[in-house]
Amino acid sequence: MDTPRTPRDEAAEYIANPRFHQSVTLPARDDHKEMLISYAEYGCESDANNPTILFTPGMFGSRYVGMFMHAIAAKNKVRVLVPDRFGFGETKNVPLASRISAWTAVMPRFLEALGIKHVALLSHSAGTMYNLNLLWHHREILHPTRPMIFFLAPFVDVAHSKVPMVLALQKLPEASFAYWNKMASFFALKASVMFGFSSGLLAQFAGALSPGNGEPSAREANMKVIERDYGLGVDLQVELENAVARGLFAEETVGANHEALTCLKKGPDALWAEADDMAMLVKKVAARERETRVEGRAALRVGIFFAESDAMTGKAGQEYFQSCWTGQNGQYECSFNVRATTIDKSDHDSVLRAAEALVDVIESVAETGMQDGSIA
Q: What region holds the AB hydrolase-1 domain (predicted)?
């Protein structure tokens, strides 16, 4: 008699999908040596006719973080690409000072190597700074007639959010973050803590002062929605959370140390590159969109999904980020089509797996494929 397969067995098989563990080598150029980028491809199979999302996770910039999008994206025939950022998986680390600028330069070449012309941009938490820079420097990677950029629990400068614990962490010496990834591994694998892969220990510490609303009942309700609509059983989802943690920390995660410093702006000036002043950057983007928009083409769609209680960004940070995109008295209405949504009973990390947000993003991108055949 065959031994019955357990949810843990199913999770191990699910996570071992070879499409989730790929790599591409970018040839050397004047500004960098040959570079290998490891990445995952979630959702539908590679096809030029399928619309594509480029997802940039938060502090733990690992391809594993996008695992929870796979079932939703597959049903909607959308492809989600999640490259490992510098210092994660097989992607080698780079100096702190060039982290965001180097990523901005490399991503168009990554997409080109995969034969992808256009994508919708999606980020969570600290991925905000990366995608804002991509938007400014490489607007051409967005769809020419239906451009989209989405933000899940966007992270902003603590100078605007005023989150007490983040302000306190900013005062610690840089050496305090030399083993940030090791501490995170302990909490995720040994301490039985519900760990936030996109904000890491920052959210754990910040949450101590400002508890979130990612309560178990909301988590379970979300899992039941995914089970009902996308066929992923609740028991399997629970085991996938554990499998994702094991897989992520079994690989290189040293990039998290630089990510923490980047989030806190501890190091050289202008670590966030163009996004160092988000309001000014969005103002420049708005002017460019207004000047280059062709009649009959859609304005840049900006989707923002806030957590009900965000221990990393806070209410002040959320208000600041939204105001960056709306401007004063609707001054950017001709440039952007902005929609901001607050996900009930969510916190900074649970937004990443909220079916309400993910379905909205993925179905919006899927519609572009129905209209003209592809966003790729």
A: 53-195
Rounded to the nearest integer, the mean pLDDT of the chain is 90
SS3 163: coil
Classify domain 7-372 at the CATH superfamily level: Alpha/Beta hydrolase fold, catalytic domain (3.40.50.1820)
CA 375 to chain centre: 19
The side-by-side arrangement of strands in the sheet containing 300-309 is 22-26, 35-43, 79-83, 52-56, 120-124, 148-152, 300-309, 336-347
* Strand ranges (E), the chain: 22-26, 35-43, 52-56, 79-83, 120-124, 148-152, 300-309, 336-347
Q: Which long-range contacts (CB under 8 A, 24 or more apart) does 233-241 make?
A: 233/7, 235/7, 236/7, 236/10, 236/11, 236/14, 237/68, 238/7, 239/7, 239/8, 239/10, 239/11, 240/11, 240/14, 240/15, 240/67, 240/68
Distance separating alpha carbons of residues 73 and 77, to the nearest angstrom: 6
pLDDT band at 212 (very low <50, low <70, confident <90, very high): very low
pLDDT tens-place string over residues 272-291:
999 999 999 999 999 999 99
Strands 52-56, 79-83: pairing kind: parallel
- Other CB atoms within 10 Å distance of the CB of residue 5: 10
Give domain limits for the chain: 7-372
The Cα–Cα gap between 70 and 80 comes to: 8
Tell me how far apart the alpha carbons of residues 185 and 70 are, in angstroms, rounded to a whole number.
Answer: 24
Instruction: Copy the structure tokens of residue 134.
Output: 């991509």
